[in-house]
Amino acid sequence: xxxxxxxxxxxxxxxxxxxxxxxxxxxxxxxxxxxxxxxxxxxxxxxxxxxxxxxxxxxxxxxxxxxxxxxxxxxxxxxxxxxxxxxxxxxxxxxxxxxxxxxxxxxxxxxxxxxxxxxxxxxxxxxxxxxxxxxxxxxxxxxxxxxxxxxxxxxxxxxxxxxxxxxxxxxxxxxxxxxxxxxxxxxxxxxxxxxxxxxxxxxxxxxxxxxxxxxxxxxxxxxxxxxxxxxxxxxxxxxxxxxxxxxxxxxxxxx
Length: 255
Fold this sequence. Notes:
The chain is of the alpha/beta class and 255 residues long.
């Protein structure tokens, strides 16, 4: 399978003839996103809203109950691997998921592909921990706290004692997302996310950074940062990182 890493600058390369090892009906998308078929409004900033990105992305829909993903139901494994392989065949350079609990299948999908898989926002945890002062910990805001197990954290590369979990999944203000309402109560969701961050910092003076597990809450990352004055990581920081790693460009300037 061709890796598709050739770059094209139309004006400079106008006289060249191009060949592609694997011809496809579309091209130019660096990131493939596996998205669960959940129907509620997706704001810009949401992983499932394509206007979130300043570069092309390609989506692949999977259909199952979100609780199955939270729980890491083994019955989902082949469906998720199949979606990832389809994205690989369609030319993406890296595959991500649109829910932090795709972490349950990170190793399975990474082993099934020739391109990188970064399925969960939580794969950033060891990098965050490495950058923090000794003794500082990571506050994780999540849509399902009970499903972030010690086993999951260890597989993501951190010790469970290095993280605090703040669960917003059952909060009244998050229900329009959690239970797929036909409308989005944006004010309630934003207040819920920001208050969760404030609570983490209030209860734990050693929080050095915040990670937003859920793919629906990056739209509120800037509000969280304004409220707690800490680094905030989310799915979009991870996806931007994966994009730039797989689409390096020449630098222009002067010295």
